[in-house]
Amino acid sequence: MSTEDSPRSGFDWPVRVYYEDTDAGGVVFYANYLRFMERGRTEWLRALGFEQDQLRAEQGVVFAVTAVDLKYLTPARFNELLTVRSSLTHKGGASLEFEQNILRVTDQAVCCRGSVKVACIDAATLRPRRLPDRLAAAI
To answer: Is the pLDDT of residue 7 over 80?
Structure first.
């Protein structure tokens, strides 16, 4: 996490590009940016004191991505260190929206920029459900 930010305002998570993340051209396969963003949101939640498996077991909620908009700006390559920067841009009753940027550490170039909307859903019924009170207060 960046020292000047708290998980409430923004959160940085490091990711190294492994060979398995790349395509035949040696650059990050486009869909893998979504995986990196997922890790960033999961670690953001963890930094706030919430584990997704515990939220499911204790509160009966899980999260599902409902919308994504990505822009690919510059390629990331094998073995580069990246930063996944996640910022919460909107909190609804049963949803969260994030702006997420994936930056190359060496020059801070933005490789991929995205907005992601996540719904809080009931684990049993898979229907939308309000964010748990403790989580909503922490955000």
So the answer is: no
Q: How confident is the model at residue 6 (pLDDT cuts 50, 70, 90)?
A: low
pTM here is: 0.91
CA 76 to chain centre: 18
12 part of the active site: no
Q: Kindly tell me the burial class for residue 25, based on how many C-beta atoms sit within 10 Å of its own C-beta (0-12, 13-18, 19 or more).
A: exposed
Measured CA angle at 20 (ends 64, 99), to 5 deg: 35
Q: What CATH number has the domain spanning 11-138?
A: 3.10.129.10
> What is the rounded distance in angstroms from the CA atom of residue 83 to the CA atom of residue 61?
28
Catalytic one of 21, 23, 53, 107: 23
Confirm if 9 and 87 have CB atoms less than 8 A apart: yes
